[in-house]
Specification:
Elements: E1 2-7, H1 11-20, E2 26-32, H2 36-45, E3 50-52, H3 55-62, E4 66-69, H4 76-85, E5 89-92, H5 100-113, E6 117-119, H6 127-137, E7 147-153, H7 162-167, H8 179-184, H9 186-193, E8 202-208, H10 211-215, E9 224-230, E10 236-242, E11 250-255, E12 260-264, E13 269-273, H11 282-307, H12 315-330, H13 338-359, E14 369-370
Parallel strand pairs: 1-2, 1-4, 2-3, 4-5, 5-6, 7-10
Antiparallel strand pairs: 7-11, 8-9, 8-14, 9-10, 11-12, 12-13
């Protein structure tokens, strides 16, 4: 039985508790929050025996096997390091840390102590995303990815978070180097990182404040971002973050030398994109029929998952947590390779470094920068 603790008892902690309770042979033994009422309310709503306001006391008293860190990102590094020092494996909610060198430090500590880490990139573990991964492993693309496209839409009309951010000049998101982007885009960047083969791609980033935000006097929160990523092996990627684009999509497209795959994360749809063409007019009729059949197949699979109680909004989180726990029990590899976690943080660092530089320059001029894996 794995003993689990949670640090940070805000909204995202509810999702973690709900998914942990779906997993066999584990128990939440304690929670922690600097605000006593936050810790107590989580224990009251989900029968959990112990709550703390001091993480060191929790670690000494409860001795958890795994700690989930669900606090704002500024505290992720120090909290994770403390948990590792006390011998606990750590699941860190996205974004993993604020800076890439912190990610490297945590991974070094975990490996030296024989412990495990993971990042909350749960979008990569939804049912459709897992099917995509299996197809890639089977060789469907025809080799390594040639090009990747990741789209991440964001709804600034969400009253529970975005409006609070826009209305509060002291909000913790504003203290992050990448502000709103840093707290959100790791899902989309991690999807790209999974298919890159080198540790030092070139990154070109262009971001701006949308006219909608400018119209309400907001000048600090960049809510439109376009990124080009390129490897020497000639794999390329585009990343688009937008608060204004409609529909507000969450999609990942991966193209190989033979075929491609398209993942619609909003609707749990995975489509196979054939690389060859039919002759003459058959190319106008057969592919639409094939795509229609694929959509029907996705519907059937989603219904089956729903009827088996495995189709829910946070299925990806449950799958990631369960895979992480299994890696701890069995001594098997972690579900997200450390290389991917590091690459995600490095790409994000470079994006925010470029955006910060451009603020002091002509907005139409940007620089290409290469970063190294050291």
């Amino acid at each position: 039985m794995l003993k689990v603790a949670i640090v940070g008892c805000g909204k995202i902690a509810d999702a973690h508790v709900a998914q942990i309770q779906r997993i066999k042979d584990c128990k939440i033994v304690a929670v922690c929050d600097r605000e006593p009422l936050m810790a107590k309310q989580l224990c009251d709503r989900f029968p959990i025996q112990h709550n703390f306001t001091d993480l060191t006391e929790l670690l000494r008293t409860s001795r958890p096997d795994v700690v989930h860190i669900t606090t704002p990102p500024e505290g992720h590094f120090e909290l994770a390091r403390l948990c590792l020092d006390y011998g606990a494996n750590v699941y860190v909610e996205k974004p993993f840390v604020v800076h890439a060198h912190q990610a490297q430090k945590l991974i070094d500590i975990a490996e030296n102590k024989g412990l495990k880490l993971t990042a909350g990139h749960n979008y990569q573990f939804s049912p459709a995303a897992r099917r995509m991964r299996e197809l890639v492993k089977s060789g469907y693309l025809g080799g390594n990815a040639v090009h990747i496209e990741s789209y991440y839409g964001y709804n600034l009309a969400d009253p529970s978070y975005a409006r609070a951010l826009l209305g509060d000049k002291q909000h913790w998101v504003r203290r992050l180097p990448g502000k709103l982007l840093q707290n959100v885009i790791s899902h989309g960047i991690a999807g790209i990182a999974e298919f890159l083969t080198s540790d030092n791609p070139e990154v070109i980033a262009y971001g701006f404040v949308s006219p909608v935000l400018k119209s309400i006097g907001e000048t600090e929160i960049i809510d439109e971002l376009r990124v080009i990523i390129s490897e020497e092996a000639h794999t390329t990627a585009y990343f688009t973050f937008s608060s204004q684009m409609k529909p507000s999509i969450h999609e990942l497209r991966v193209y190989g030398s033979k075929n491609g795959l398209a993942l619609d994360q909003n609707h749990e749809i995975l489509l196979k994109l054939r690389g060859d063409k039919y002759k003459s007019y058959a190319d106008k009729f057969v592919p639409p029929a094939q795509l229609a059949m694929q959509h029907l197949d996705n519907l059937i699979q989603n219904v089956r998952l729903f009827l088996s109680n495995e189709f829910h909004m946070d299925a990806g989180m449950k799958n990631l947590i369960e895979s992480f726990y299994n890696s701890i029990r069995e001594g098997s590899p972690v579900p997200i390779p450390y290389r991917e976690i590091l690459l995600t943080t490095r790409i994000m660092d470079e994006i925010f470094n470029q955006l910060t530089t451009k603020r002091s320059q002509d907005p139409l001029v940007y620089q290409t920068a290469r970063f190294r894996g050291e």
